[in-house]
Amino acid sequence: EVQLVESGGGLVQPGGSLRLSCAASGFIVSKNIVKWVRQAPGKGLEWVSTINPGGGTSYASSVKGRFIISTDNVANTLYLQMSSLKPEDTAVYYCQIGGSRGQGTQVTVSS
C-alpha cells in the first residue's frame, strides 16, 4: 500500500526558506516518477516539480530557480527545498505518485 506523509510546512516571511519532506512507504521513491503539487486557497491543484528515476527534474516556471526537488534513497523520502519564498507560494503542498497523494503540509508566506 502506497503511503505518503508530508511535513516541514509552516509560516515563513517573504524571502525565507523551508524544506518539505515526504516520507514514502509501499514503493521505492528513487525508482518512480514522483512530484510535488500544491493547492492555494480557493484554487485548483498546481503542479510544482517532478523528479524521475534517472534523477532528471522539472519545475513549474513560477518556482524554477527557487525550488529544488530531491530524494534520499536511504530514507526513501522526497524533499522540496524552497527558497526566496513569495506570498503567492502560500498553499497546501502534497507529494504525489500516480494518483496517490499524502495529507499535505501547509506553507504560509506572510510578513
How is this structure best described in words?
- The protein is mainly β.
- The protein contains no helices and eleven strands.
- It is 0% helix and 52% strand.
- Strands 2, 4, 5, 6, 9, 10 and 11 form a seven-stranded mixed beta sheet that branches.
- The protein starts with a strand and ends with a strand.
Question: What layout of secondary structure does this protein have?
Answer:
Blueprint: E1 3-7, E2 10-12, E3 18-25, E4 34-39, E5 45-51, E6 57-59, E7 67-72, E8 77-82, E9 91-97, E10 100-101, E11 105-109
Parallel strand pairs: 2-11
Antiparallel strand pairs: 1-3, 3-8, 4-5, 4-9, 5-6, 7-8, 9-10, 9-11
What is the H/E string? EEEEEEEEEEE
| Strand-pairing-aware structural class | mainly beta
Largest sheet: 7 strands, mixed
Counting DSSP E segments of at least 2 residues, the number of strands comes to: 11
Tally of contiguous helical segments: 0
- Form type: globular
Would you tell me the overall average pLDDT? 96
How much strand?
over 45%
Radius of gyration computed on alpha carbons: 13 Å
> Any low-confidence stretches, pLDDT <50, length ≥5?
none
Question: In which range does the helix fraction lie?
Answer: under 10%
Distance between the termini: 40 Å
Attribute tags:
4-stranded antiparallel sheet, mainly beta, globular, 111 residues, single chain, 11 strands, 7-stranded mixed sheet
Task: Describe this structure in a few short sentences.
The chain is mainly beta.
